[in-house]
Amino acid sequence: MPRRTGPLGLALLVIASTLALPVSSAAAATVPTGARSLESVNFPGRFVRHLDHLGRLDPVTSGSTAQAKQDATFTVVNGLASPACYSFQAANGQFLRHRDYRVHLEANAGTAQFRADATFCAVAGSVTGSVSLASFNLPDRRLRHRDYELWLDPYQDTAQFRADSSFRLTAPWTPKTTKGPVIPGLFADPHITNFNGRYYLYPTTDGYAGWASPYYKAFSSTDLVNWTDHGVILDHGPDVSWADNSAWAPAVVAKNGRYYLYFSGGAASGDTAKHLGVAVSDSPTGPFRDALGRPLIRAGTYSGQAIDPMVFTDDDGRSYLYWGNGTAYVVPLNADMTSFDPAKVRDITPTGYREASFVVKRNGTYYFMWSENDTRDEDYRVAYATGPSPLGPWTKRGVVLQKRLDLGIKGPGHHSVVKAPTGDTWHVAYHRFAVPAGNGTNREVTVDRLTFNADGTIAPIVPTP
Ligand code: FUB
Question: Where is this site: Important for catalytic activity, responsible for pKa modulation of the active site Glu and correct orientation of both the proton donor and substrate (predicted)?
């Protein structure tokens, strides 16, 4: 079957074919993600900042006001339009974007236009260690200062322009004081797991209207604090013949010496149906390839959307696939991990169930967890049940994670749970509305402790701001 080019692939192709000299001839540069400030190379001591929602270049010193320092601090995140580029998020959650060639600070509307306007691709700057930021969608234009205002101007091959468009990424004027998110930027539905002593995080890429992102990234860590970005591991457009968008809620499991990634996806052209697929790789960081060339579960085969897969492997080595939206299903997987007996599919829907099934086992008890309400609702939350087998029967125990408005935490849910390689230490990864300005399509991922009470029930999860 011919491989199709999805939205991301198309965008990159367009860039490659339309890049004007300045970007294609300049070496692409990488920028570390996380909190940074951007200092002008030709006006040392002046930094990129926002003021009244416009980008400027202003002096900032240790004696500047806390507000000025904060306004000159940005979190460098995954590019909203492309993981090969970057976006710059201010402390209020808004992003630098160009509009009418001026640089503004605005909230992510999730549209293709906004995401492109808020994405900049880094190339080597005029002096060693500096970067220049080319527009993602107008690649012959770069972010530059002019009369201390930030503009998106056509590249000119002059020393003046190169200097005006080059910035050093310095330590942030306002260091981060809160813990979350664990990976900078907009991500959701995190699947956390541990392979051979290393933690891995597989999230949905967020920030798209209608959750339309086409690709998945993988992150890994040894301490659950410092995460390495392994880049894109599966891109629906080029990698999956039957899906173009809606790369939702991946789950990765190791079996048979390989890694299986279960995921959901929708076709383009306004088709809202979601199918559930499985991809395979020899490495936890991919690249993954579609294992079947068709969905494992086609939309409409069972009631509810075929989304939010999760695989639990019991001590006897048997693996079970859970999925569902509105209705929760489970079925034992065959040894190949890519097929099952449809006659063995069971409906295990508990009261309140919406989506995001997750199962763990501790001291012989099976814990079936899920999310309740709508991910766009601040009351999105996590509940659980216990049972004697991977198939139940289940006894609902209640809600363990919910909003904390006093901490600015809304809509915490679509979680996953991982046990440390040794001992009885457990952690939970989940998403919430990005703090402070997120919503149901602008979510962020965080990790907290999950503890069990002496009677085996799960203690309420205390979310960290
Ligand atoms: O991220 C897209 C969808 O939103 C997921 O599949 C649901 O669980 C909800 O988090």
Answer: 308
Q: HSE (CB half, 13 Å, CA atoms) of 449?
A: 7
Which among 202, 206, 211, 263 is the best mutation to test ligand 1's pocket, defined by most ligand atoms within 8 Å of the CB?
A: 211
Q: Where are the alpha helices (DSSP H) in 144-258?
A: 159-164, 236-239
| Structural domains in the chain plus CATH codes | 7-170 (2.80.10.50), 187-450 (2.115.10.20)
Structure tokens at 20: 């004007």
48, 68, 64, 44: which is closest to 56 by C-alpha?
48
Distance, CA of 145 to chain centre: 31
Task: Respond yes or no: is residue 189 known to be catalytic.
Answer: yes
Closest CA to 416 of 361, 358, 360: 358
- As a whole number, mean pLDDT of residues 109-113 equals 97
d(CA 248, ligand 1 centre) in Å: 6
Phi, psi of 238 (to 5 degrees): -80, -25
Q: How far is the CA of 129 from the centre of ligand 1 (A)?
A: 39
167-170 and 319-324 as β-strands: parallel, antiparallel, unpaired?
A: unpaired
Rounded (10°) CA dihedral 441, 116, 182, 418: 60
Q: Residue 124 above 90 pLDDT? A: yes
> For residue 182, which phi and psi values (nearest 5 degrees)?
-75, -25
Q: Which of 153, 164, 355, 378 is catalytic?
A: 355
Q: What is the mean pLDDT of residues 145-167?
A: 98
- For residue 355, indicate whether it is catalytic: yes
Residues for the chain: how many in total? 465
- In angstroms, what is the span from residue 329 Cα to ligand 1's centroid? 16
Residues 281 and 291 sit within 8 Å (Cβ to Cβ): no
Q: Please enumerate in sequence order all residues whose Cβ is within 8 A of that of 124, keeping only pairs 6 or more positions apart, or say none.
A: 26, 27, 29, 130, 131, 132
Weakest-pLDDT range from 6-10, 174-178, 191-195: 6-10
pTM exceeding 0.85: yes
Cα dist from 397 to 41, 184, 286, 387, 449, whole Å: 59, 33, 37, 10, 19
Residue with tokens 């859970």: 322
pLDDT per residue over 409-458, tens digit each? 999 999 999 999 999 999 999 999 999 999 999 999 999 999 999 999 99
Q: Which amino acid is it at 339? A: S
